[in-house]
Each structure stands twice: as C-alpha cells, then as structure tokens.
Amino acid sequence: MKFFNTQSKKKETFKPLRQGVVKIYSCGPTVYGPAHLGNLRAYIFADVLNRFLNFKGYQTCWVMNITDIDDKTIQGAKKAGVSLKEFTKNNENNFLKDLKYLNIKKADFYPKATENIKEIQDLIKRLFEKGYAYEKDGSVYFDISRFKNYGKLSHFELEGVEAGARVDADQYEKEAPGDFVLWKKKKPGEPAWQLNVNGLKLDGRPGWHIECSAMAMKYLGATLDFHLGGVDLIFPHHENEIAQSEAATGKPFVRFWLHNEHLLIDGKKMAKSLGNFYILKDLIARGFDPLSFRYLCLQTHYRSKMNFTWESLEAAEKTLKEIKKLGQRESGQSISASVRRFIISAFEDDLDTPKALAILHRANNFNLWLEFDKVLGLGLGKIKEQRVKIKNEIRSLLEKREELRKQGRFEEADKIREKIQKMGYEIEDTEEGPRLIKS
C-alpha cells in the first residue's frame, strides 16, 4: 500500500508502527453550525481509508475530535442566546446524524476539547518546562523560533519572520506568521479554566491547535500512523500541531499526513465564510439520497479538487440506482481473481477510488460490488437483504397458491400469480411443480 505523504510530497509504502494495528486521527468539526458538503467530503475520505485498512485485515483505532470551544463556537452561542454546552451539543448531534446518513462508520473516540482540559494543560506545562512556551499579558504562546523544524509540513521558511511576533487568532495566513497561542487570556463572558504554571495563575481557555495534539496523544500515543484533514488545515493548524507535539515528546508526531482537496462550487472553494455552501439537509430537501453524494465524492480522487453541481449529483444518483438494479437480478457470473486483484491494487495506490469504480462498472457483477462495498460504503448490502426477503415472500406465496389449487380455488390462486408477476417473476407450472422465472 502506498499513500501520498504531504510532508515528503511523494507516495510512500505504508507499514504500521505496530504490527496489525493502525492509529488514525482526523480533525473533526468545529461545532458552531452544520457541516457543509466540503467538510463532509473529508469525513467520507477518512471513512474509506478506515474501511480499506479493515478490509486488508488491520485493526484500526480512529479518533475524530470535536472542537467545542473556540472563537467561533463562543460567538455562535452568544448570538443564539444559549449556553456554549447547549449550542455545541445540538450542532454535534446534527453532525453525527449527517455521518449516519452518509454511512460513515463511527470513529472509536470523539473526544471534546472541554472534556480534556487537564490533558491540554499538562501538555502546555511540558512545553513550559522545555522552554518552548512563554507567558505574555496573561496568555501563553509557543515560541516557533525554538522549534528548528518549524515549517517542515507546509514547506515554510522561518527566515524573515519577525522575532517575537505573536498571533492570537486561531486561523491566519503564511504571510503573517508568529508565535501561536496555546492558552488564551479570559475575556468577559467567556468560559474559563485556571492554568497554574511557573507560579502563575492564568484564567483562560485553550487555543485551537493545542487541543488536537493533547487529544491525539491521549488516545493514540506520541506517534500516529495517519493524520487526516483538508488541505486548508496544513498551515497553520497541522504545522503547529507538529511543533507543539514534537517539542513536548521529542518523537515524530505523525508518520503519514494525508490531506483531501477542496470541494468547489462554481469553481470557488465551498466555505461558510464565503456564503457559497450547501449542507446535507439541502440535498435531502431536494429528494436526493445522501449516499448519492458519497458516490459522487468517490468518483473524484481525494487529492483532486471536486466541483459540485446539481447535475453531477443527479448523474451520481442515476448511476447508484443502476448499481442497485443490478443487485435485484440474479448474478451467477463468476469473476476472475485478476479482476479482484486490480480493484484492490487501485485502493492500494493512494486510495484511487475512481479507478476502482471504473473496474467495477466494467465487471458489471453485483456480487463484486457487494464485496467491495465494505470499502465504498454505498449501502449495497441492503439490496441483498431485500432480495432475500423478496425470495422468502415469493416462496410463501407460491406454497399458498399450490394449496389453493389443490382445493380447486383457482380464482384466488390466479390472484397470487398476478401478485408474484408484479414482484418480477413468472410461474411455469410443470409436472414436478411450479417453477419461478425472473421476468
């Protein structure tokens, strides 16, 4: 298996740190509103990776954090006139419903920032002890000049950065870097905890970047196999995660960084800040099956930009229906081992889902679709269950018809024949008994 590692900018052969077990961390939502389709594309990609590793026989531990305190959640709760906890919990529940609609398997853990304050504070204390953190005006910052490998993920050069420049915002551009905030000084009306460090008592809350490092290491240890997220998180979020984590432990934080590209709408990045976004409810309101959106995402490689249109979604829904129709027919056609191998090879090559789909369409065999749906997650197993259910129902009707015929109740028996015909089967009466033929 090879995956494109953002840090090395090349495909690398994957072997887990611990044999048979793979540790995965993906940046989850900041629950200040519903996730838009671009956000959901990232979680579909993470789910396909997790599913494929399971398909290959690996045990996975997948952690997806929930950011339930930051600038946006605090502002959102104030605007809604409710407590931060009530505001974020409601958005979290809606997010988890979206994942269920999209057939995204549950992660093993969904840690929340507010429930891991101790771990966050302990990490900040370690950074103080090692000389990477300092206090200024009641807040705590990470000194990027002390971490010599700063910029290794985003290939950013520290030269020219003003010494001691500080950034309080959670998100900022490469053009304005600086020492990023680990602990934010309390503001009136904001939730706060007390951080006791170096004889100081600092009332405040965690910065965004430190939350992920603390939660990732709590559940997965100092070094992760995979860290996933959108390309917009490479800088500063993931760059800062590396700096604070490796400064604290002295060990590599992540072995493989995998980033999915943007979802576009009218050629522009879909984003709440731009106001050009759709959420899953918009698709459902228009009568679309959420799994059509999942299929649409699988048609584009995760590292390629994907342009969303209603026409492309309609086409994806039509194709998915055709696949399901294939499942309503009997499929006795055998599949060569080489076809199966080609599909697996596509997934092994940096999760090349478009190539895997193309091979599956050429093979045109539902049992093959069913086998690889363990990776694709299109809910095709329900078609098989439905087919079995229909068969059992027809068998019962057939037995009832035979009883009626024996009793000479031919009119009632003919009504059952008509019912079976509507279910897609013809009955041929032979000397050996009735025979079903798929119409």
From TrEMBL:
<dbReference type="InterPro" id="IPR009080">
    <property type="entry name" value="tRNAsynth_Ia_anticodon-bd"/>
</dbReference>
<keyword id="KW-0963">Cytoplasm</keyword>
<comment type="similarity">
    <text>Belongs to the class-I aminoacyl-tRNA synthetase family.</text>
</comment>
<dbReference type="GO" id="GO:0008270">
    <property type="term" value="F:zinc ion binding"/>
</dbReference>
<dbReference type="GO" id="GO:0005829">
    <property type="term" value="C:cytosol"/>
</dbReference>
<dbReference type="InterPro" id="IPR032678">
    <property type="entry name" value="tRNA-synt_1_cat_dom"/>
</dbReference>
<dbReference type="GO" id="GO:0005524">
    <property type="term" value="F:ATP binding"/>
</dbReference>
<keyword id="KW-0067">ATP-binding</keyword>
<dbReference type="InterPro" id="IPR015803">
    <property type="entry name" value="Cys-tRNA-ligase"/>
</dbReference>
<comment type="subunit">
    <text>Monomer.</text>
</comment>
<keyword id="KW-0862">Zinc</keyword>
<keyword id="KW-0030">Aminoacyl-tRNA synthetase</keyword>
<keyword id="KW-0175">Coiled coil</keyword>
<feature type="domain" description="tRNA synthetases class I catalytic">
    <location>
        <begin position="14"/>
        <end position="317"/>
    </location>
</feature>
<dbReference type="GO" id="GO:0004817">
    <property type="term" value="F:cysteine-tRNA ligase activity"/>
</dbReference>
<dbReference type="InterPro" id="IPR024909">
    <property type="entry name" value="Cys-tRNA/MSH_ligase"/>
</dbReference>
<keyword id="KW-0648">Protein biosynthesis</keyword>
<keyword id="KW-0479">Metal-binding</keyword>
<feature type="binding site">
    <location>
        <position position="237"/>
    </location>
    <ligand>
        <name>Zn(2+)</name>
    </ligand>
</feature>
<feature type="coiled-coil region">
    <location>
        <begin position="380"/>
        <end position="414"/>
    </location>
</feature>
<keyword id="KW-0547">Nucleotide-binding</keyword>
<feature type="binding site">
    <location>
        <position position="212"/>
    </location>
    <ligand>
        <name>Zn(2+)</name>
    </ligand>
</feature>
<feature type="binding site">
    <location>
        <position position="272"/>
    </location>
    <ligand>
        <name>ATP</name>
    </ligand>
</feature>
<dbReference type="Pfam" id="PF01406">
    <property type="entry name" value="tRNA-synt_1e"/>
</dbReference>
<feature type="short sequence motif" description="'HIGH' region">
    <location>
        <begin position="29"/>
        <end position="39"/>
    </location>
</feature>
<dbReference type="GO" id="GO:0006423">
    <property type="term" value="P:cysteinyl-tRNA aminoacylation"/>
</dbReference>
<feature type="short sequence motif" description="'KMSKS' region">
    <location>
        <begin position="269"/>
        <end position="273"/>
    </location>
</feature>
<dbReference type="InterPro" id="IPR014729">
    <property type="entry name" value="Rossmann-like_a/b/a_fold"/>
</dbReference>
<feature type="binding site">
    <location>
        <position position="241"/>
    </location>
    <ligand>
        <name>Zn(2+)</name>
    </ligand>
</feature>
<feature type="binding site">
    <location>
        <position position="27"/>
    </location>
    <ligand>
        <name>Zn(2+)</name>
    </ligand>
</feature>
<keyword id="KW-0436">Ligase</keyword>
<protein>
    <recommendedName>
        <fullName>Cysteine--tRNA ligase</fullName>
        <ecNumber>6.1.1.16</ecNumber>
    </recommendedName>
</protein>
